[in-house]
Amino acid sequence: MGLFGDILGTLAGGSATPGGTEGQIMRAVAGMLSDKQSGGLAGLVTNFQKNGLGDVVSSWIGTGKNLPISADQIQRVFGNQQVSQIAQKVGIDPEKVTTTLASVLPGLVDKLTPNGKLPSEDVLLEGINLLKKKLGR
Predict the structure, then answer these.
(1) In the CATH hierarchy, which fold is given to the domain comprising 3-134?
(2) 15 falls in which pLDDT band (50, 70, 90)?
(3) How far is residue 34's CA from residue 128's CA, in Å, rounded to a whole number?
(4) How confident is the model at residue 6 (pLDDT cuts 50, 70, 90)?
(5) Which residues fall within 8 angstroms of residue 97, CB to CB, at 6 or more apart?
(6) Residue ranges per domain, the chain?
(7) Does the pLDDT of residue 96 top 50, yes or no?
């Protein structure tokens, strides 16, 4: 199936349907990961490290077991403004955003880094665009 087929199968399948809450949140996250101004996936990793969660995000990138993350930790990494923007865009409570991100972000980062390292920008953008398309942009 390939790397991005696996991502789509993991994230767009099940409850992450295009019109569902998880699907909408994943579209917002996909937008962040493809945003060069925010640094994309590397920028997200840096935010985790700056907020004392480098070991958590490193576990998602590495080939071992993914460490869990709490909604409070997600809030700390993304900050009130970014969480509120996602919540407003999706039309849900910010708490639901952080809870959903805590649930799906470890798997997303894990699937985007199958060899234990960050993908090239081109490969990442290709996968993010495929994910956005599958989730209905």
Answers:
(1) Arc Repressor Mutant, subunit A (1.10.10)
(2) very low
(3) 7
(4) low
(5) 25, 83, 86, 87, 90
(6) 3-134
(7) yes
